[in-house]
Amino acid sequence: MMLAAEHNYSNTYRECVKMFPDDTACAAFLVRLRWPEGQI
Q1: pLDDT of 21-31, one tens digit each?
Q2: Which residues constitute the domain of residue 20?
Q3: CA 31, CA 5: separation in Å to the nearest integer?
Q4: Can you tell me the distance from the alpha carbon of 14 to that of 31, in angstroms, rounded to the nearest whole number?
Q5: Confidence at residue 36, expressed as pLDDT on a 0 to 100 scale
Q6: Domain count of the chain?
Q7: CB 19 within 8 A of CB 25
């Protein structure tokens, strides 16, 4: 799977923690990345 170029990804640990404060936020991001049109 390739990451989408238009997304702003975190560059530091602090930004990563802010972007993904918990497992749910991380999972939601991965779902949006994998299925941008929504899950089948």
Answers
A1: 999 999 998 88
A2: 1-40
A3: 16
A4: 22
A5: 83
A6: 1
A7: yes
